[in-house]
Specification:
The protein has about 110 residues and is mostly beta strands. The chain has one domain: Thrombin, subunit H, CATH 2.40.10. Helices cover about 5% and strands about 55% of the residues. The protein is built from 1 helix and 7 strands, in the order E-E-E-E-E-H-E-E. The protein has a 6-stranded antiparallel barrel. The longest helix is centred in the middle third of the chain and has 4 residues, at about 65. The protein is globular, with a radius of gyration of 15 Å. The protein starts with 14 loop residues before the first strand and ends in a 6-residue tail after the last strand.
Length: about 110
């Protein structure tokens, strides 16, 4: 099978807060962890069942160690393109591949010294 990805993927285990959006109503937020991310998509694990084609609203946190400065938040919207069941040690997790359609970068204010 040929890899059809256009953008480079980065294997990053980052906290993500995900909300499925349906008909202008957002569902409850769920916490998860990313497995990898690119400028066009993200793969994350979450304990919420999502359906392919669902619209998502999510927030990623890039810690200061990665940005070499202050924390950076990425607020994004996208669509679920694939869902995989991932049985885990503690609970069943769902692997979700999502296409990023729009994102905003929010830089945290540096701490006053």
């Amino acid at each position: 099978m040929t890899d059809r990805r256009i953008a480079r993927r980065y294997e990053l285990n980052l906290p993500v807060v995900v909300r499925a959006v349906a008909e202008r109503k957002a569902a409850d937020s769920r916490n998860g962890k990313t497995r990898d991310i690119s400028t066009r998509g993200v793969y994350f694990l979450v304990d919420q069942q999502l359906e392919p084609g669902s619209t998502l609203d999510f927030m990623l946190t890039l810690p200061a160690e990665i940005t070499r400065g202050t924390e950076v938040f990425i607020h994004a919207q996208g669509k679920v393109v694939r869902v995989e069941r991932k049985p885990g040690d503690e609970e069943e997790r769902i692997g979700v591949a999502a296409m990023i359609e729009k994102y905003d970068i929010i830089r945290a204010e540096p701490a006053a010294t």
